[in-house]
Amino acid sequence: MPGIIAGKLGDPFLIIAAWIAGGLFTFLGANIYAELGTAFPKAGGPYVYVREAAGPFAGFVTGWSDTAISVIATAAQAAAFGLYLENDVLDSRAVAIAELGVLFAVNWFGLKVGARTQQALSLFKVGGLVLLALACLALGGVKPPSDVQLFEHGFGLAGMIAALMLVTETYAGWNSGSISPRRTRIPTATFHALCSGASAR
After folding, report:
1. CB of 193 within 8 A of CB of 173?
2. Helices and strands counted in the chain (H then E)
3. Which of 180-189's residues contact partners 24+ apart within 8 Å by CB, and which partners?
4. Which of 46, 85, 122, 147 is spaced 20 to 30 Å from 184 by Cα?
5. How confident is the model at residue 144 (pLDDT cuts 50, 70, 90)?
6. What angle do CA 123, 127, 131 make, to 5 degrees?
7. Model-level pTM?
């Protein structure tokens, strides 16, 4: 995703500005969800908020659309994982199905096992990003050949809009804390999800 965003903007300062704008947008969204979670401390997240604002039918549509998006996103992530590992031996579809099967098995053993697995994977991801950043700082300063095109095109309004959409999609998931049961401290859970998700981007 970062490479696609960089290709659509074509300028390092615009790339950084897009990620900062996406972070600010996410931060504002977390504040809104924290306020809504305090006002309506019930399980359901966006379903509850839309139902209170626009009625039961709108809440029903919101709940089902969120469910559909979660299922589609899970399948898309598995497909992307399969494409990365595809080779002469492994088929991308087989890898994607195997990944979904492993995740299903992990969650089958209970909430604690699933939570610990997620924490371990998140730690592994953050550690990998830190190592990558350190490697870039240590090995940086190498200029690419003059005939290499780093960006698809120059700056344009359509490219900026597309890049911001991709940035906000990358930050997606921070609002999951609002779906927790009412005994959860929803504002705290929302900000914990925001911080942990943003730190991994």
Report:
1. yes
2. 8, 0
3. 180/43, 181/43, 182/41, 182/42, 182/43, 186/33, 186/34, 186/37, 186/38, 186/41, 187/34, 187/35, 187/37, 187/38
4. 122
5. low
6. 175
7. 0.62
